[in-house]
Amino acid sequence: MARPLYVWDYLQEYENEREDILDAVDTVFRSGQLVLGRAVRDFEADFASYHGVSHCVGVDNGTNAIVLALQALGVGPGDEVITVSNTAAPTVVAIDATGATPVFVDVHEDTYLMDVGQVEAAVTERTRCLLPVHLYGQCVDMEPLREIADRHDLVILEDCAQAHAARHHGRIAGSMGEAAAFSFYPTKVLGTYGDGGATITSDPQVDAALRQLRYYGMKERYYVERTPGHNSRLDEVHAEILRRKLTRLDGYVAARRAVAARYAEALAGTDVVVPAVAPGNEHSYYVYVVRHPRRDDIIEALKAHGVSLNISYPWPVHTMSGFAKLGYRTGSLPVTEAAAKEIFSLPMYPSLTESDQTMVVESLLKVLAAL
Ligand SMILES: *Cc1c(COP(=O)(O)O)cnc(C)c1O
Q1: For the residues of 37-71, what is the DSSP string, one character each?
Q2: Which of the two residues, 8 and 2, has the higher pLDDT score?
């Protein structure tokens, strides 16, 4: 049987960009500097300027981008960080790794994004940080969140791992908090050929702290000033690939939006619920999350058509045994829990061809008709 069609694939994109990617690798390998050299510096400058902020610190992955950002913002043991349970688990893994306590609010029924209306009631005297996740490629409603942060003297860290180039009332994701964390994991809207991440900020003190934290806590070579430190550097080879791919980011997002528009048109009139875009948002469609009460049957039936789907995410974080220590019970975040049972993702990546997409849609329509 032919290779199934997956929700994400990079092989066609690699064929399209192979010369440039191989040249990036060769350029780094011949540069004489494999770690924290010119490529990282140049990518950091370009990535900061793309977001209209003054600093970018490249790190080894998105999870550590969040860990280091929280620590650089002064968040640690005893502090509470308000976020959502409907997210990629690493958001919460990162908060937990700092010793701070994640506190969850529920999400909106239509966008599955943080319900900002619930945040203020979750603020306690221990709250230090609000951590909105711009999930699936779409921004959280940031203006009311900023008001709450200012009223209670809290910092905002944006989790932008899924929201490269997304915009909210014209402002780009990552430019609205005290800091923002990005992942460049291969599937992400801007992805490398391995792991990578970055934190951006316009606060020079946060930038300075991040640079130490990713480098063992060293202030200069061989002298540790800040603990606990990490080795969380972005590799030169990934920085050079990312620097080149950043120039194509707007094109990737345009291609994703075209795929999304074709799905929305093809699925109109079915009982599959397609993504809602909140007012003022420009979606970058990291994943294309739809909803149907017979989700599990649909996924199973589509396998026979050679389409392998995915769920982002099947388990709300607060229901996972690793986070039982947080004390949430099933039933505590009803919108999140209901969504997790019915959502699933359709294939979404810039190089998805129209004919493959048509195949997916036709298979899905057949499966729906036979339910
Ligand atoms: C991917 C992701 C992360 C973690 O990024 P890694 O590079 O895989 O460590 C964090 N938060 C969200 C929302 C993500 O999607």
Answers
A1: SHHHHHHHHHHHHHHT-SEEEEES-HHHHHHHHHH
A2: 8
